Amino acid sequence: MERRTVKKGIRVLLARLGLDAHWRGSIVVAHALRDAGMEVIYIGNQMPKEIVETAIQEDVDIIGLSSLSGNHMILAPEVVKILREKGMRETPVVLGGTVPPDDIPRLKEAGIAGIFGPGSSLKEIIQFISALGKK
Amino acid sequence: MRPKRNLFNTESIDKIRKKGEKWQRQVYPTEKQRQEVFETLSGIPIEPIYSPTHLAEMDYLRDLGFPGEEPFVRGVHPTMYRGRTWTHRQLAGFGPPEETNKRYKFLLKQGATGINGVFDYPTLRGYDSTDPEAYADVGRGGVAIDTVEDMRILFDGIPLDHVSSSLVTCQPIGNISVQSMYFANAQAQEIPFSELRGTSQNDFLMETAVAIAPEVFPPRASFKFSCDAIEYCTKHVPRWNPVSFAGYNYREAGCTAVQEVAFVLANAMACSEELIKRGLEVDRFAPRLSFFFSGHSDFFEEIAKYRAARRIWYRMMKERFGAKDPRSLALRFHVQTAGFALTAQQPLNNIARAAYHALVLGGAQSVHIDAYDEALCTPTELSSLTALRTQQILQLETRVTHTIDPLGGSYFIESLTNQLEEKIVALLNEIEAMGGIVKSVEKGWIHKEISSAAYECQKAIESGEMPIVGVNCYKIEDEKLPVELFRVPETLEVQRAKLEKIKKERNSTNVQKALDTILHCCEKDGNLMEVVVEAVKAHVTEGEVTKMLKRFYGTWNPPLF
Q: Would residue B66 count as lying in a domain?
């Protein structure tokens, strides 16, 4: 924790959920967040438990999840649930990928702070994460 | 070697050049251009007009020739679509095999001329449906396959000796089991291997560079699995295309057209070298190497890309590998319209988009047209049918099939073909200087190339430099989705029940023996397909094969970012 006494940029953990094979979205967002001055920890495909473990170890400010396989309704809420169980009540979780509009209310209810569907711009993602990170 | 014969005589070219230069100086600038720079999607500058001067150095017979003849630029078959049109091969796969079987039959009944079977994420990566990491992805993105029994169900009632099947087993680790199950299932039905026609994707870049995840197989191992399958089919399943170098997917991950072709050709070159090292003659395996390209949104560049790819392949096979069989020299390919170009916004626009992407003016052997809802979900029956009908309209109504390579000879297309060829060859040389494609993956070079290209592309979309209708222009605020979304049917429990039953009923001594044989095969660096085909007959599951191979080859963490 000591290394965080002087806070630099916002630390973001980016992970792809489960076995989803789509790569492009998360890697492009990783580039953009880094260019926007954030620290990005990109861990590729992981299950919720591992994502939360890494988030705690790395002491991140925000968790970004990517899913284009349709697994988001199962795994994204699981990440939030495990995160809260581990005592990280404040850490926001955002989700990007092919999320059908009908799923959005249920994901928000499950505690996902922001949802970025297909066609979302990097600009809006950066703005949203910057705002969350400053809180 | 015969002397070079230019297309046009020097005197004519000089006159045209002078007149053209005058036009560009005096006539063209009288009106303002609507943008400063015009270029292809991969960044090749486009001039206002093309003329014979751009082709002054071309030798028709050397550089273009006639269809079905060297250098195969104008087409790989003598008659092309005047003889047989392209295969209408629509992707299908979701849920348990029981459900996908119905979709296959529906598409065949509606006139599809081949099967294009896509598998769910666990199957692609060699996991059983019941694996602790799989539960959220079972049945998603494709059909779930765990054992040979699933393969039987998947193709139930479909004559394997009459329908050609493309298995979208993109990663060699998934391919080794799934392809083995396909063959084992055919054998159980007493269909000889010589009657089987189809393709498996089986591309090691898909495992190590494009769909990357932590703890995948090391590049050398993945490359070996891919070559094992090619070698096996060359020896036992002569009409099967054991690899389809998946440029399409490299493109989806972010590549430009130039990178797409350079990376597939570098991959095919490495496989060819390996197979020759294993003692196979080039003309034994090369006729069955096949390619898979994207049909993206830059209309002319895509057409030129296919033509350039054919010329480079021809030269590589002939000059480097000494191939003689015309089937080794001719590059055959499947096209899928670019999923990346589809939008979730105003999804019905995708019908028009995909139709432009599919216009088969580049000489594809088979085509999949994306369904309009693919940016949102797995295609519904209606969207799949609309995509299939788009193929049929293209084939039957537009008459683009009536002459071969209809854009051949266009000053622009020929010039673009030449420029693409030059850029692709330069990139191929760069990869070779690095030690080849496997090295370039191990070093993480290829990952950086693809991710930088993807990022640049996204920046161009954000700046509006690359217009996308409905996304960065002509948007509809608060749009109501005009389409019904597909929901994947329950899959995990269906698969779990079958797996439990099979594990209870199968002969465990035989299973253990089969797994031991796989391990021995690894130890003596034998061809793994030979033993996996036998193992799946004993109802060894896909996940069990993978675990055994991981035990021997270990895992690799690709450079992620």
A: no
Q: What is the 3-state secondary structure (H, E, C) of chain A?
A: CHHHCCCCCCEEEEEEECCCCCCHHHHHHHHHHHHCCCEEEEEEEECHHHHHHHHHHHCCCEEEEEECCCCHHHHHHHHHHHHHHCCCCCCCEEEEECCCHHHHHHHHHCCCCEEECCCCCHHHHHHHHHHHHHC
Q: Residue B208 in contact with residue B446, Cβ under 8 Å?
A: no
ipTM of the complex: 0.92
Q: Find the CATH number of the domain harbouring B179.
A: 3.20.20.240
- CA–CA gap between residue B63 and residue B6 (Å, rounded): 10
Distance CA B258, CA B238 (A): 31
* Nearest Cα residue in chain B from A75: B136
pLDDT tens per residue, range B416-457: 999 999 999 999 999 999 999 999 999 999 999 999 999 999
A91 touching chain B per CB within 8 A: no
Query: Does residue B137 sit within a domain?
Result: yes
Q: Are B115 and B163 in contact (CB under 8 A)?
A: yes
Give the integer Cα–Cα distance in Å for B110 and B386.
11
Contact flag A98-B375 (C-beta cutoff 8 Å): yes
CATH of the domain at A28: 3.40.50.280
- Residues of chain B in contact with residue A28, where contact means CB-CB under 8 angstroms, are 254, 451, 454-455, 458
Residue in A closest to B347 by C-alpha:
A118
* Tokens standing for residue B274: 């390996």
Minimal Cα distance from A98: which residue of B? B376
Tell me if B214 and A44 make a contact (CB, 8 A cut-off): yes
Q: How many domains does chain B have?
A: 1
How many structural domains are present in chain A?
1
Please spell the DSSP secondary structure of B64-132, one letter per residue: T--TTSTT-TT-SSSSGGGTSPPEE--EE--SSHHHHHHHHHHHHHTT--SEEEEB-HHHHTT--TTST
> B165-168 and B115-118: which strand pairing?
parallel
Measured CA distances, B78 to A56, A135, B323, B330, B404 (Å): 63, 68, 19, 12, 9
| Chain segment B351-399, per-residue pLDDT in tens | 999 999 998 789 999 999 999 999 888 899 999 999 999 999 999 999 9
Strands ordered across the beta sheet of A39-46: A39-46, A11-17, A62-67, A93-97, A114-116
Do B561 and A45 count as a contact with CB atoms less than 8 A apart?
no
Contact (CB<8Å) B141/A21: yes
- The 10s digit of each residue's pLDDT in B464-487 is 999 999 999 999 988 888 788 888
Helix/strand/coil (H/E/C) assignment for every residue in B445-457: HHHHHHHHHHHHH
pTM check: above 0.80 = yes
Cβ pair B213:A122 closer than 8 A = no
Instruction: Evaluate whether residue B334 is within a structural domain.
Output: yes
Domain that holds residue A44: 2-134
Q: Please state, in angstroms and rounded to a whole number, the distance separating the CA atoms of residues B427 and B429.
A: 5
**Beta carbons of B552 and B522 less than 8 angstroms apart:** yes
- Which of A27, A46, A82, A123 is the best residue to mutate to test the B interface, defined by the most B CB atoms within 10 Å of its own CB? A27
User: Taking CB atoms and an 8 Å limit, are B458 and A46 in contact across chains?
Assistant: no
CA dist B59 and B231 (Å) reads 37
Q: Note whether residue B43 is domain-resident.
A: no
Crossing angle of helices A122-134/B445-463, nearest 10°?
Answer: 100
Query: According to the model, what pLDDT value does residue B213 have?
Result: 75
What residues of A are in contact with residue B478 (Cβ under 8 Å)? Answer: none
Q: How many residues does chain B have?
A: 561
Segments forming the whole domain that contains residue B89 = 77-463
